[in-house]
Amino acid sequence: MKTIVKYVVLKSLDYQLGTPLFQEEIDADSQYFDQIPATISYQNHKFKVKSKELKRIFLAEEQEEMQTIIVKVITQA
């Protein structure tokens, strides 16, 4: 299933509140939401996952299911 994962910073000295870190588009199964690790490394920084949000839609015209996951992170000390 087409999956878009967006990583957003909630709290960090190096990034402003709500700054999108990065976004990736992957082909993942419906269980991917539960497989997101508790910590994420990006540009030599470590982030702790604070929350995850999942939105799934079914595109009837294309007979395709799609999901968007928003992962909110904070800097890990």
Task: Give structural notes.
The structure is a single chain. Helices cover 5% and strands 64% of the residues. It has 77 residues and is mostly beta strands. The chain has a 5-stranded mixed sheet, with no helix packed on it. The termini are far apart.
Brief sketch in words of this structure:
By secondary structure, the protein is mainly β. The protein has one helix and five strands, in the order ββαβββ.
Annotate the secondary structure layout:
Elements: E1 2-11, E2 20-27, H1 32-35, E3 39-42, E4 45-59, E5 64-75
Parallel strand pairs: 1-5
Antiparallel strand pairs: 1-2, 3-4, 4-5
**Total helix count?**
1
H and E order: EEHEEE
Bin the strand percentage.
over 45%
Low-confidence stretches: none
Largest sheet report: 5 strands, mixed
Please state the structural category.
Answer: mainly beta
Mean pLDDT, to the nearest integer, reads: 91
Radius of gyration: 14 Å
Which shape, going by the Cα principal axes? Answer: elongated
Counted beta strands: 5
Keywords:
five-stranded mixed beta sheet, 77 residues
